[in-house]
């Protein structure tokens, strides 16, 4: 019998059923289409063995006048300058203070924990402080004390605790001398966005975990810490201890006994509130740190973990951690962004641990957002900004050990923004631009205000007739979301519109044009520029700007938007790989609070593919020979060179591509498949290969059955199979670490075999 060529259309298509998409590809991971042919993507390896503190959310590379190749690295904890594989901490300083006499008091004997007396320190749990000038005390050496520390507990506004890593001799001893200097870095940010309930968020629409309801037994004012109910019998309480330490970035909590904890809710450990979504055995999983304005902190093994019940009274959410008879005690008023107010006697009290029903008057809110950085180089220097917070300047001439300082504190600074949503440099005309900046003369942030510096002057922001500094408030929308630069203009997205910002020179400096209403972008980092094209993702589609806005036809819309976690949308980001004409959009699937998927577009041939890869930030090649991506392995954060080798940093990758179901013959009769003639280009020094997997079924409603798996190497001429069916699926997969491959046109020996 003649051989039948089995050809599939380029690109993955999930817009219809697998059976309906005849001769198409249906699923993939870690592959790309190049000139219509599927192939394994390149591997990745660490830039260096060094890691960074915190999850990386921003990468930017540039070169200095001295030809140093630098990369800015922003995390929710730190900001680094990477050079030659070394990460230099340039995190800005918030405050510097000289502490009083003997401000360091040791804890118990054998422990490295100390209590530090620091009047008006303003620090939060998890913040970083560096000591200098401290003298040895009670067995703690100067090396133990004079270094960077993490504040583990805020005792009061005038004291806090930290672990020096040393060992006290006696304990309860005050020391440190008279010249202890404390340098406080800016507050650490939040890793995960914590969204409150309400329209379009949380449990809106009704989700019942337990649902109890009663009334107040007596009215309350806005400050009481105990609430008397008509009946509290159905309101839950539970308490246990941790069976292991809870570190920064932990994704679960190990308890001595979690059987008394509800299946989802919030626990309080020390002074931190931690929400969880799963309770399995003795483990609370899928956690979100620092709820209701509390601060993520380190927690020791054996720390008390108390269930924090949540009640709803009118529009106020209130946490409680204990009850006595019908009294809820130790309450936290105005929780999760709501406002503490007075409530009348007999008003309804609802348990809100797992229920927000249709029509409940709970407004949407966010009690914390993932920390994002924006950054852009000003020549060899760097301007950086914490989203909706301060703007900083790093001077390369001061060396890699110098910290960034406030832009407003630079020599000659005039009206420089102190708060902004995003910072960028307009390269062609040399202006620094701040989006969503504070207005001149105030600290009030205006989320629609665009401000820019004088030309060729990063610190002069005072508009005069003699310079080009100025501002413009956009009129459409309620807030600026993000921006992107092309060669000709800067695009600015609000939550309702897209604007063009073009340099036109004096007297106006910049011209602003409204390009479109009723358009936006899903999150700040989901925009990427490639030449004169700008691609982005909104809540239901993909777009490109090429002088006008166009929808990008996508064969994976349902796959992406039907399974996406919008609560963590600030983590989503886009990145380009110009080596292969590709754009990635990385996002969290609906079952994950961390990025676990990507959708990828080849803008040269218009094909799409999908895969699973955990990355948190990306920068394209150019200054560096490879694109770079940030990722987390076992709670440790690294930067990787991509398109480097054939492995996942030394371990084997598992790429695959799987076809849609295709009929054999006309689909009305059974046929027999006797041989597969592979057409695949395989590279492997050890002679390893790939697997051709044939799955079969007879009717659309049947499950696919793996009929055969055939190993194919570069020398394989044919694979003998013995399959009989009406329909089949072809899957190509590999697991060897040194293999790369590109697929051609597979042929099969197919013979009619009757109707029954």
Radius of gyration, whole Å: 30 Å
**What composes the largest sheet?**
8 strands, antiparallel
Q: Kindly report how far apart the N and C termini lie.
A: 21 Å
Number of helices: 2
Taken together, the total number of domains comes to 4
Structural class: mainly beta
Tell me roughly what share of residues is in helical segments.
Answer: under 10%
Strand content: 35-45%
| Number of DSSP E strands | 65
What general form does the structure show? globular
Mean pLDDT across all amino acids: 90
Spatial sequence of strands, sheet with the most strands: 10-17-13-14-15-12-11-16
Low-confidence stretches: 196-211, 355-367
Give a brief description:
This protein has 756 residues and is mainly beta. The protein is built from two helices and 65 strands.
Q: How would you describe the overall organization of this protein?
A:
- By secondary structure, this protein is an all-beta fold.
- It has 4 domains: 3-30 and 653-752, Jelly Rolls (Sandwich), CATH 2.60.120; 93-185, Elongation Factor Tu (Ef-tu), domain 3, CATH 2.40.30.20; 196-363, no CATH class; 374-520.
- The strands form 16 sheets. The protein has an 8-stranded antiparallel beta sheet, with no helix packed on it. Strands 2, 56, 57, 60, 61 and 63 form a 6-stranded antiparallel beta sheet that branches.
- The protein has 2 helices and 65 strands.
- Helix content is 1%, strand content 43%.
- Residues 196-211 and 355-367 have low confidence and may be disordered.
């Amino acid at each position: 019998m003649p051989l039948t060529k089995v050809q599939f259309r380029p690109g993955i298509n999930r817009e219809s059923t697998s059976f309906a998409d005849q001769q198409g590809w249906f699923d993939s991971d870690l592959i790309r289409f190049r000139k219509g042919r599927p192939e394994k993507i390149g591997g990745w390896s660490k830039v260096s063995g060094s890691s960074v503190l915190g999850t990386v959310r921003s990468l930017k590379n540039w070169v200095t006048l001295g030809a140093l190749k630098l990369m800015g690295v922003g995390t929710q904890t730190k900001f680094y300058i990477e050079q030659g594989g070394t990460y230099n901490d340039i995190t800005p300083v918030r405050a510097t203070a000289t502490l009083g006499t003997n401000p360091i008091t040791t804890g118990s004997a054998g422990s490295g924990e100390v209590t530090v007396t620091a009047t008006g320190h303003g620090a939060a749990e998890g913040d970083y402080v560096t000591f200098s000038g401290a003298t040895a005390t009670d067995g703690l050496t100067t090396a133990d004390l004079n270094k960077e520390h993490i504040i583990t507990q805020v005792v009061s506004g005038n004291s806090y605790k930290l672990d020096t890593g040393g060992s006290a001799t006696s304990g309860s001893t005050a020391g440190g001398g008279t010249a202890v200097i404390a340098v406080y870095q800016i507050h650490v940010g939040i890793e995960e966005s914590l969204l409150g309930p309400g329209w379009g968020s949380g449990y809106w629409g009704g989700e019942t975990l337990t649902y109890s309801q009663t009334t107040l037994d007596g009215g309350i004012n806005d400050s009481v810490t105990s609430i008397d109910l008509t009946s509290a019998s159905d309101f839950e309480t539970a308490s246990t201890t941790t069976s292991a330490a809870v570190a920064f970035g932990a994704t679960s909590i190990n308890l001595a006994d979690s059987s008394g904890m509800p299946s989802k809710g919030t626990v309080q450990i020390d002074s931190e509130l931690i929400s969880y979504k799963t309770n399995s055995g003795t483990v609370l999983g899928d956690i979100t740190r620092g709820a209701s304005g509390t601060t993520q902190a380190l927690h020791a093994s054996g720390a008390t973990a108390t269930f924090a019940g949540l009640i709803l009274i009118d529009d106020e959410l209130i946490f409680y951690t204990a009850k006595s008879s019908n009294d809820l005690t130790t309450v936290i008023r105005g929780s999760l962004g709501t406002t503490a107010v007075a409530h009348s006697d007999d008003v309804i009290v609802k348990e809100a641990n797992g229920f927000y029903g249709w029509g409940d008057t709970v407004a949407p809110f966010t009690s914390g957002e993932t920390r994002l950085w924006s950054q852009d180089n000003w020549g060899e220097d760097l301007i950086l900004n914490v989203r909706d917070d301060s703007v900083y300047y790093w001077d390369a001439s001061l060396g890699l050990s110098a910290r960034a300082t406030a832009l407003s504190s630079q020599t000659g600074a005039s009206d420089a923004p102190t708060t902004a949503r995003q910072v960028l440099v307009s390269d062609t005309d040399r202006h620094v631009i701040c989006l969503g900046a504070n207005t001149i003369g105030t600290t009030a942030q205006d989320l629609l205000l665009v401000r820019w510096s004088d030309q060729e002057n990063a610190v002069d922001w005072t508009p005069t007739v003699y310079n080009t500094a100025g501002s413009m408030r956009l009129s459409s929308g309620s807030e600026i979301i993000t921006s992107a630069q092309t060669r000709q203009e800067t695009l600015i997205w609000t939550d309702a519109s897209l604007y063009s910002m073009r340099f036109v020179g004096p007297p106006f400096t910049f011209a602003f044009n409204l390009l479109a209403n009723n358009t936006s972008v899903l999150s700040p980092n989901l925009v990427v520029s490639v030449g004169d094209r700008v691609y982005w993702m909104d809540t239901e589609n993909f777009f490109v700007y090429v002088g006008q806005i166009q929808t990008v036809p996508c064969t994976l819309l349902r796959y992406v938007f039907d399974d996406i976690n919008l609560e963590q949308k600030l983590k989503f980001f886009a990145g380009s790989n110009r080596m292969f004409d590709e754009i990635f959009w990385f996002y969290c699937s609906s079952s994950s609070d961390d990025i676990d998927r990507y959708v990828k577009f080849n803008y040269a041939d218009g094909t799409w593919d999908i895969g699973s890869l955990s990355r948190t930030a990306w920068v394209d090649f150019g200054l560096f020979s490879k694109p770079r991506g940030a990722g987390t392995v076992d709670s440790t954060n690294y930067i990787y060179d991509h398109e480097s080798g054939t492995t996942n940093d030394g371990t084997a990758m598992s790429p695959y591509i799987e076809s849609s179901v295709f009929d054999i013959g006309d689909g009305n009769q059974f046929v027999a498949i006797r041989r597969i003639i592979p057409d695949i280009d395989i590279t492997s020094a050890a002679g390893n290969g790939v697997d051709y997997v044939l799955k079969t079924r007879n009717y659309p409603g049947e499950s696919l059955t793996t009929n055969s798996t055939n190993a194919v190497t570069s020398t394989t001429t044919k694979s003998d199979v013995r399959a009989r069916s009406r329909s089949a699926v072809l899957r190509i997969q590999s697991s060897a670490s040194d293999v790369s491959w590109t697929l051609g046109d597979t042929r099969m020996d197919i013979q009619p075999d009757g109707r029954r």
